[in-house]
Amino acid sequence: MNSSPFISASSSTRSVMIDVIIALLPLLVIALWAFGERAFVVVISCILSCLLVNVLSGYVILNKSKVSMDGSAIITGILLAFTLSPLTPWYVCVFGGSMAILFGKILWGGLGKNRFNPALVGREFMTAFFPFIMNGGSLWDTGLYVNNIDPGEYKIFLSGHFSTIIYNPTGALGEYSLVAISLGGIYLLIRNRISWHIPFTFLVTLSLVQSLLPIGNTIQFSTGGVLLGAVFMATDMPTSPTHRNAKLYFGMMLGLVISLLLYSGVHHVYLSYGILIMNAFMKQIGEVMKPNAWGHSFQKDTLEKIGQTSFHILLITFSVISLHKADVINWLIFGYAGYMLFKFYDQTQFKTRALF
């Protein structure tokens, strides 16, 4: 028998990241086509700040040997940019990219150890530290800046509705083409980088909740934004479950949580809140929904644990809604930053004591 390891992975981390970047390229082309240099400044500010902080903070906090140019920082930068308006100032983008890497990845211990989606962590830091810019209505009034194209008159096909599926430059940079997002998702499915479970149950649950609402109480959301989150953010490997049943439950609860956020009047940030809430329960969901070992019967207390987990998720969701309505959600971000810094300091002190 050969020496260990006996099972080797067929894909490296870098090859996985390259596939994700390839899947994001159609969205990037559409964003640059729509807003030209404005989109370029936002995207490049996010990418460069993520790369720079990834190298510097990884060298200082982790150590140089653990810093890898695997492409994950580039993906974080692109995804962060895709959640932003093309009119977002570059220095705010640089701040968001820096916080995404520092508080979303490095302080957790590096790639694969983070609990929350780094791009969404960066976006929430931007909202907390630059509330007047990020919450200003003018940031999303982008109609006059679309390059050489009047969105109201532009039609690829005779059907205006079908044309908007291919190209509809409103909202955040990553939401402009449902077709481009779908192509990226299909590519990732073919390459086995994501599975269908989370996007499918998420979208089905969101659709069911909306169809069950009384007429006149429909919830309003960005279809492109929801599809972007379903394909590229909710399926993030370190922050989503790995087992099939856990993925189905994760997607279903994500759809329910986002429906509650939307129905409660949370706009613009409902997707960030929903995915980050579910990220917080990722490990608990994976433990409760893990498959039974061969030869073992169904655990009788599994349904009770699922009920408890669901109750906790809904409790946190209503707490976040209350904090948002009270306009104090930024203090939650400040608390998170303080906790991460204290956690890092405590771990550093423990390692120092262990050396002596």
Structural description of this entry:
It is built from 14 helices and no strands. It has 356 residues and is mainly alpha-helical. Helix 1 packs across helix 2, helix 2 crosses helix 4 and helix 8 runs parallel beside helix 10. The longest helix is centred in the N-terminal third of the chain and has 50 residues, at 13-62. The model has no long low-confidence stretch (mean pLDDT 86).
- Low-confidence blocks of residues: none
Which series of helices and strands comes N to C? Answer: HHHHHHHHHHHHHH
Alpha-carbon Rg, integer? 21 Å
Structural class: mainly alpha
Whole-Å distance between the termini?
A: 41 Å
Q: How much of the polypeptide forms β-strand, as a percent range?
A: under 5%
Number of H/I helices: 14
Helix proportion range:
55-70%
The number of distinct β-strands equals 0
Mean pLDDT across all amino acids: 86
Note the overall shape: globular
Q: Give the biggest beta sheet.
A: none
